[in-house]
Each structure stands twice: as structure tokens, then as C-alpha cells.
Design goal:
Layout lengths: L1 H37 L3 E9 L4 E4 L4 E3 L7 E7 L6 H19 L5 E7 L7 H8 L7 E4 L2 H10 L4 E5 L6 E5 L3 E4 L4 E6 L5 H14 L1
Parallel strand pairs: 4-5, 5-6
Antiparallel strand pairs: 1-10, 2-3, 2-6, 4-9, 7-8, 9-10
Helix pairs in contact: 2-5
């Protein structure tokens, strides 16, 4: 009888240990990968954030909704085609990243996305022509100001218009981080600037292997 009681108590204790571990291990695991990813200038959020509905347009004029974030790792940059320096530099880095990932990664389950913050000038055709100078794998998105602001708010991206006295002569101030949405359609973190292709490739491989 005593042996049976000890066995039952032992099983109860083991079950309690497993239950407690199940509560804390995911957080411990996330903290571990946050430290590892930080070495590649990637900031992993404490908790993933769902993306609300958006309705944008790609460079072929096709609709692009939040549903198209599902099933792939999404690496997203906000900018505009009249950008003098940051955007062309970033798109060149994204081109290098795509080539590096193709050589190094076991899985190519990703899409790089360039979202305009200047939809008044950046039509789908203009975006297509601009992106072709860097890498046609990059998906260009435009749309209404309201829809672009909706997506940017989801990703904590700030931007505004800076006029130079002439309404037609203006530039756009915008955040320059590279944002990441996971295959479940959740915002999970971002790459800090300056962006480096080597960091993007290494962090992508960690993310797609462990998350």
C-alpha cells in the first residue's frame, strides 16, 4: 500500500513539474533566442502582435491583403521612390540579402516587401520601375493613404510629409528599420539600422528554424 501511495505521489509531483515547466519554458526559450538574435541586430518583441486587416496593391495592380503575410516570413521596409539616399541604400542591402540567403539558407520561405509612404506619387507602375533597379523579387506595395497608415501603425512605423515651400516639391520623413512578420501573420520584431545583409541572412535562418 505504501509503495502504491509513493508511486501516486511521485506521479503527481512529476505532473506538477511538467506543468510548471510548460508555463516557463516558452518564455525562457524566447529570451534565449532574443539574446542570440540581438547579435545580428534583430530585436525580438516580448510578445508577437497580430496584424489587423489591410488592403494594398502590388506592382502588377493585384490586391494585397494581410492574408498574403500568411505562410511566409515577411521582411518589410517603408520608404518612397523619390528618396535620395536611405531607400536606395536599403533596397541594395535587401538585394544582397536575397542573394546571400539563397546561398546559405536551407529554406527560402520568405518575401521582401517595400511599402511606399508616398502613394500620391508612387503608383504601382512607378514602384515596379523603381524596384526593377534593385531586385525584382522585392514586392512593391502602394495603396490609399489610409491603408498604408493602417499597416504602418500595426508595425509602429512613423512617417510624415516635409514640404519645402512648394506643395509639389516635398520629401518624406520615415522610419528605416526592417520589420518582420512571421508566417502566422504576426509582427515579431525588427532589424536595427544600419542594415547589413549578413545580419539579415543569419537572423532569418534562426527565425525560420526555431519559430
Amino acid at each position: 500500500m505504501k509503495t502504491a501511495i509513493r508511486l501516486v505521489l511521485g506521479l503527481i509531483f512529476l505532473g506538477a513539474v511538467i506543468f510548471i515547466a510548460s508555463l516557463f519554458l516558452p518564455k525562457m526559450s524566447r529570451e534565449f533566442f532574443r539574446t542570440e538574435l540581438s547579435a545580428y541586430e534583430f530585436n525580438l518583441l516580448a510578445e508577437s502582435k497580430p496584424i489587423n486587416q489591410v488592403a494594398l496593391v502590388d506592382t502588377l495592380g493585384n490586391s494585397f491583403s494581410d492574408a498574403k503575410f500568411q505562410g511566409k516570413w515577411n521582411l518589410i521596409f517603408f520608404g518612397f521612390t523619390h528618396c535620395p539616399e536611405i531607400c536606395p541604400t536599403t533596397l541594395s542591402t535587401l538585394d544582397s540579402s536575397i542573394q546571400l540567403i539563397a546561398r546559405e539558407a536551407a529554406s527560402l520561405n520568405y518575401q521582401f516587401i517595400f511599402v511606399t509612404v508616398d502613394p500620391a506619387r508612387d503608383t504601382a507602375a512607378r514602384m515596379k520601375e523603381y524596384i526593377a533597379q534593385f531586385n525584382n523579387e522585392i514586392i512593391g506595395l502602394t495603396g490609399s493613404p489610409e491603408e498604408i497608415k493602417k499597416l504602418s501603425a500595426n508595425l509602429f512605423v512613423a512617417f510624415d510629409k516635409s514640404a519645402n515651400g512648394d506643395e509639389a516639391d516635398y520629401t518624406m520623413n520615415h522610419s528605416s528599420q526592417l520589420l518582420v512578420i512571421n508566417p502566422q501573420g504576426q509582427f515579431i520584431g525588427y532589424f536595427r539600422t544600419p542594415l547589413k545583409a549578413e545580419n539579415i541572412s543569419q537572423a532569418y535562418q534562426i527565425l525560420q528554424s526555431h519559430f
